[in-house]
Each structure stands twice: as C-alpha cells, then as structure tokens.
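Chapter review: from sequence to fold.
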Amino acid sequence: MADEPVPPTPAPSSGSGSLFAQGEKFQRINVSEEMRSCFLDYSMSVIVSRALPDVRDGLKPSQRRILYTMGELNLTPTRKHLKSAKIVGDTMGNYHPHGDQAIYPTLVHMAQPWAIREPLIDSQGNFGSIEGDPPASMRYTEARLTHLGIALMEDLDRDTVDFVPNYDERLTEPVVLPAAFPNLLVNGSTGIAVGMATNMPPHNFGEVVEAICLVIDKPEVSIEGLMKVMKGPDFPLGAQILGQEGIKNYFHTGRGSVKVRAKVHTEEQKGGRTVLIVDEIPFNVNRATLVEKIGDLVRDKTVPEISDIRDESDENTRVVIEIKRDAVPKVVLNKLFKLTSLESSFSVNALAIDRGKPKTLNLKEMINCYVEHRREVILRRTRFELRKAEDRAELLEGYLIAQSNLDEFIRIIRESKNREEAKHKLEDFKFPRATVEKWGIKIRDERRLRDGNYLLTERQIDAVLDLRLYQLTGLERDKITKEYNELLERISDLIDILSKEIRVLTIIKKELRALKDKHATERRTEIVPDEGEMLLEDLIANEGVIITLTHKGLIKRTNINSYRSQRRGGRGVIGHAASEENRNEEGDFVEHLFTASTHDYLMFFTNTGRVYVERVYEIPEMGRASKGKSIANLLELKSDESVAAMIRIESRRSSKNEDITWESEDYLFFATKQGTVKRTKLSDFANYRKGGIIAIGIDPADKDLLMSVVLTDGKKEVVLITKTGMSIRFDENDVRFMGRPASGVKGITLEKGDEVVATALVDPNSTLLVAGENGIGKRTEFTEYRQQSRGGKGIITMKTTEKTGQVAGALTVTGETEIMLITEKGLMVRTSSKDIRETGRNAQGVKLINLEAGDKLLAIAPVISEKNESAEDGEAEQPNLDG
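The token string follows.
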C-alpha cells in the first residue's frame, strides 16, 4: 500500500553513477504529506512572525524591531535625528535579517502623516509624498522617535514584557511592546499573509481612550454603547464616511466595508463660473493618479461638463475642477464620485494575532485584549518596582542599624584582619527586635528574625562595609531616615496595587487619559448620513425634456427650454429635421410627442399590445433640429411592431431612497382603435423586461391595434374620441381591472370607417380640448358630455368638416396648461390653452396654428409646467416638474 511506512533502505554500494555515499541510507516519504507539512509551517511563520499585527501593541515584527532599535539608539524626541541607514542597518544586523528593502519602507510608512493617523517616527528629509513619490534613499534621510513612538516602549526596562533571543541568539528582543496606548485601534494596520489578510482602519485617539475607559467602568457595555463615544474610523486625510452601516458591521463582527468620500465645496469665480474644490481625499488614494483619472474622463468625454482641472495642493489638498457654465455642479460631482476614487470603499478585516493565533476580533474583543495586556504590564511593572523598593529598603535598614551602632561596628571592623573576617563577625551580630523597631526600622519579613533577634543580611553587611565616612554624619542619617520612610509608604502602595484589581484598572485609565490630554487631536473624518447606493439617475440632472418619435422610428429628447412660448396662431419653430424636401425623399414625419422629466420612466406601448419600459435619460439627447436616433437602438421591437402610445410614469422614491414607483395604486387604461378598452393595475408592470412584456391581448385576426393608454387613479371618468368627431363618457369602473394578457371589453360602438383617436380623463376643473387636422380647435366644458354606459355609440364632440378636417387629437386642459402642437412637416408650436376660446360641443372652434399648404396637424401634447425655485445647497435654479 502507498500509505504504509517504508523501512529505511540501505543505499547501493558506491560505484559508477551512484548518487549515494557508501553506507548512506535513504527513506521513502509521501511527497504530498511532506509538502502539506512544510507549507503549513511556512504559512504559520508568515502569519505569526511577519505579516499580521499583534492585538496588544498593534505592531508587526518588522515595525516592532525598528522601534526597539531606535529605542536602543536613544533616538528620543529631544535628541537629534539619526541617518535612516544607521537605523535600518542596526535593525537588520541585530533583529530583522530580511534586507533593507523590507525594513526601510516600513520605517518610512510609520513616519508618513498621510499614511498613519499618529506617526510613530519623526522624519527629516524626503520621505515620499501623497502623490506616490518614493522617499529618498536611506543614506539621505534621518529619523527619530515621536512622543507616541516612545510611549509604545515606555517601561520596557521594567520587566513588563517577555524577551526572547534574536535570530542568532546574540541578543534578546521583546515579544511585544508595553504599548501605553492602543496602537492597533489608533493607527490601524494592513498586512497580507498566506490565506488571510488584515486591514484595520485608524481611529481617533481621544475616542479610543474614552471607549477603553468605558469598558473598564462598565464591562457589560454593548457595542452600541461604545459607538456613542467611539464614532468610527478617523483617517489621516479626513474626508467623509457615508453612513453607519459599515461601521456597525465591523464593530460587531470584525468585518465590514466603509464608504469614504472626498470632501468637496463649490466656489463662484468671475463670470459666474462655478468650480469644485476638493479639500480632502479618501484614505490611501493617490492624489496624482486621481487628477490623472479625472483628466482621462474629460478627454474621453465621459464627463464633458468639466472644462479644466488643476492640482493646486501644497501640504494641504486643493484640487480645482472647473465646470462649464451650463453644467450642474451636483450632477458633475455625482459622476466623479461614481467614476473615480473620489469615493472609495475601505474593506475592514480586523484580523490580528491573539495569544499566538490569528483571530478576527470585534471592537469589544480588541479593547478587552488591550486592557488585559495593560493589566499584565502594570502588574509586572509593579512587581518590578516593589522588588527594587524592597532591595533599596534593605540597604537603608543596614545603614540605619550601622549608624545606631556606630562605635561597635567601627570596633569590629578595626579588630578584623580583613574584609572577610569583618563580614563573618557582622553576620553573627544580633539585634533584639524591640531595639530595631525603636530605631525606626520596620520588620517587613519575619524570616529575617532568628530567636526574636534581627540579623543583618549579606547585602546589608556589604553595604555597611562600603560606607564612606561622610555617610555616618547626623545629616546623612536624617536623609536616610526620610528616604526609608518614603520607601515604606511606596512599598505599601505597591502591595495595595497588587492586591486590588480596581487599583490596576484605575492606573490604566489614568495613564491613558494623560496621554490623551497631551496627544489627542480633533476628529478629521466626518461621518455623514448615507444617501444610499449611487444610482444612475443621481448622475443625471432632473430637468424637463420633450420626447419625439417619428413615423420611421427616430427618437430623441430635447431640453424643454429649447422651445420659446408663442401666442396662438404663431408660425412656430422647426423642431425636427423633416422639411418638405426631407419628407418627400424619406417619407418621414414626427408621429408621437411627449413631455417628461429625465428621471421618469417611459412606457412604450406598441400597436400589437406589448410594452417596453425605459428611463427618460436613456433616450438619446439631441438638438431641436436633429432627426433623432433609431428606436431600434433603444427598444428590442419586433418586425411587426411600432410604438402606438407612450406614457410617463413619475419616478418616486421613499425616505430610504428606495424606488417605489411601481408600488402605486394607479391603473393603466387601454383603448384600441376598434373601441375595445381595458384596465390593469400599474403594479402588474413592475417586473418589466428589456425585451418587453404583454400589456393587452390583441388577436391579429381582428385586425385591431392599440391606440392609446392613460394613467388613472381608479376613480376617473373616461372620454373616448373618434376621428369623425364622436365621443362617449363613462366611469372607468364600468371596466373591471384585468391582468396584462386580457383583451378587454367594448368601450364604444363605431360606425364603419371610424376609429378611436384619443382618450381623455374627465376633470371638473378642466376642459376638453379637441383639435382638427386643419389646425382648428376648441375647448369645451365636460358638463356638456353626459355620462353614458360604456359600449354605446356616444355623442358628437366636434363637427368635422372640410374646414376642420378629421380629429387629430384631444386633451384634458386647464387655463394654465401649455400645449405643444406638431405638424406632419415637423413644425412645433408651444402655446397656452387659455388663448383657445371655449365653445360648445357642436362648434367647430378657432385657429390654433397657421399651416402651410399641404401640411396638417398631427398631434397635440401637454407641456409640463415649470416653476423656478431655488435648489437646495445653493445650486442654480432648475425647473420644478409638476407633471
């Protein structure tokens, strides 16, 4: 079997071509198992000894060794800077034998104020830049520790942490630094190991300290409670964090994603031009690369609204983005947020070494690990100080005894032949306990007594024999007594610290707050509410447009301000390149016209009963005289389909910025040319597809086609108007609502050759405008149209004659409604309905537009009203689209 152990096999005797020495043995091994074992060993070495930070001091081994080397070189903030090459060389030679190309960048990183929230190294010389420029060679730069760099190593000489041999066992190095402040939380960390990585953001020093103190005071505090004092990441470059969700996630689980956005403000320049000023950029974003990316977007015309971009930064960021006069600053800014690193995500993975093992930690776990580390440091420091105090007290006791028995001690020393004899005689010297206590000496260790008598220790005897004559004076005795009494108080205090947990925790808080008072700075990163996922409509200005569709399927959108308002009877302006010459050559003319807002939805209903849904901003934008683009580029129409009706669905969003357009209780009312009607809930169309869905069932054998679709609230009355001037008014509830595939019911009975040309909704405060092909139109009160049952022949709405021509269209209008008139030759006139006189049902009406010979009125449509209101945040005025 392959898995069975194979006994060692003696090597063949040395001979010609043999690979083995004589007598050498070899053993077969499983290569797969050996590779697995070796790779696991390598992985753990990288994870624990190179790539991941320790949760206690927040440092990776290379960082810790650099700081420790600088401490050994005594590079305190009060000393002058030392060449980086010396620091790197000592680190490499003594503790970190991995090459200067690994050590120097680590040193540089700990000194860059844009890369680390609280620098641990004070640099001098070229240490790189935020634009990604590399630092100068280490032979040119100099460095020393900052105050916080020193704080990480404070009390390192007081037996506060364990030391282990260095790589060649010549020296020892600390396993972890005492870390007087929580470096992992304050400065964060980044590292990639084998199969795992860490990415911790920095936080505000003061907030972290207060969070730790809160955990000490209230161990049961929740993470939500901690978030009241520790708000979230605080990046060196400031910027803004969008929302709390990502922060909550990694505070609770150790993992999350935080959206970071640049801080930008606008300034007005001469000539009314607006510029965007980028003041702060997201963490780890290269400023030069960012400016270059924006320039590429401008050159590619992806963001054509920008006219110029300049980087005017010094030690502070200032990127100036000039935008064109007619551009909307917020729209341009939203595009840049979407397309550049002006908005980026910081993916948090709070992975650190805890007790020798990699572990993903939440906020409270990281704080608890740090508190436990500091508790151990303080206990070990206290024990060290207690030992030192007791050792000193022991010597002072010897001095006091010697001074109290000066004559006897001098006699013994003078009578002794040498130091050793004097030492032996003093070892046998006994002092009654009562006498010793009378001299002011406190018996702190009963083991020092023998048969009730106090004996001098070897250290005390050596100290007495080393006494100088001046130390035997009375002044020196008072000084020694004072020091001894102070030491006794100090020893008592140290013992109290070791015996009371509350004392240890109080010291942790006191020392942290002392550092906070010296080094904490104001929060730089602002946390603002998240506006939600960046949607495409956020990049598009919300403005009024006119949608036109020609008979041959050319579609476009044009800004509504391109059409000037005219009086009734005006000649109009050319709104589409369909002159008489073009019409004769191409046989094309504008067939459909619609007004909408760029954020709205457009439903395209085809003559065969299907519907396609697109956003208005997806319609190609073109000039007033342009022909448009083929609708085949927009909709996946079938060969026998043409657009019969278009309807605008106003885009609606909830308070949470969720699209709730299709959740309305509205209905779509359908009418076919043969007088069939149907009602369907708008919500039935929420799951539209790019390839279109069925809107109404139309049997091709009936030779019927969809004519119009209107949006209702379920409480309207409907008027159907035919091309011969007939009409019928009935309650829409006479038509029960049906599903999308349903065919519908009869709405009006038509005479032979007649067909439905328009559908209007009844409004008591409005009138019905009916227009004939020859440019004649009229407005009539709805009261003149009596309500009937659906399915009847109806009544006359307009007497159609040679003067009027057949009915071209009908609309429900008020005195404030503006309408657009469009002719077969592409002439457009925008006029107000109040200029059209009201008449009775049987009247022919008045002239709406002056038509050229051979031209005729093709369609009429309402224009969305405009109210100039100041936009929020000081933006330029934009039309408010009421629909």
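Two observations follow directly from the output. The radius of gyration is 45 Å. Confidence is low (pLDDT under 50) at residues 577-587, 865-883.
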